[in-house]
Structures are given as structure tokens and as C-alpha cells.
Amino acid sequence: MTMPYPDVVKPIMDGQELKGFAVWCPVCKKGHVFDSRWIFNMDMKRPTFEPSLVVDEPGKLVCHIFVVNGDLKYLPDSKHNMRNRTIRLLPFPKEK
Ligand SMILES: [Zn+2]
Question: How remote is the CA of residue 1 from the centroid of ligand 1, in Å?
Fold first, then answer.
């Protein structure tokens, strides 16, 4: 028996309104949110979002991700050690 894939995408709600979908980034230790500008294949276990997402927040390292078929690719212009690496997306950690 194989383990089912876990859900790795979290819907982000604003009250009753769906704002977007987030994936967990183990480098930034937070969710990165794709809103309606991105194309999502609606697969919560093996998601693809197009195009890529640049997370550039003041005081934080630039994180440039591409999510394809459940993989999280860190693009070369990311300003952290995981650039050029691809990992399997992980579920969001349990809330404390
Ligand atoms: Zn990140």
C-alpha cells in the first residue's frame, strides 16, 4: 500500500472570499501566495502554478519559485542557498 500524497496547497480566505492559494516555503518559513493572476491546475497534491512567483519583501532575501507538478523549484536569481535546487513540496507545518 502506498501513502497518498498529502495536500500541499492551502486556500487563503479573506472572510468568505478566496484570496488565493499558498504553498509552504521551507527557506522563508512561510507560505507564498498565488492569487488569481496565476494559472493553477487545481491539484492540491501535485500543484502547478504558472508563471513563477518572485517574493521580494523589504529586509528579506529574494525568493523566486516555480511550482510544477508538486515540485518547488528555486530559480537562479533567488538570493539564498537553495537557488537552482528543486524539492518536493511539503504540507504546511501544523499550527502551534
Ligand atoms: Zn521562499
Answer: 33
State the residue range of the domain holding 28: 9-88
Evaluate whether residue 20 is within a structural domain.
yes
Assigned domain for 53 exists:
yes
> Is the full-model pTM beyond 0.85?
yes
Ligand 1 centroid to Cα of residue 78, in Å, is: 9
Rounded Cα distance, 18 and 25, in Å: 20
**Cα 29 to averaged position of ligand 1 atoms, centre (Å):** 7
- The answer to whether residue 94 is domain-embedded is no
The total number of structural domains that make up the chain: 1
Q: What is the mean pLDDT of residues 42-64?
A: 95
User: Using 50, 70 and 90 to split pLDDT, how confident is the model at 96?
Assistant: low
Using the predicted structure, report yes or no on whether residue 76 has a pLDDT greater than 80: yes
41 vs 61: CA distance, rounded Å:
28
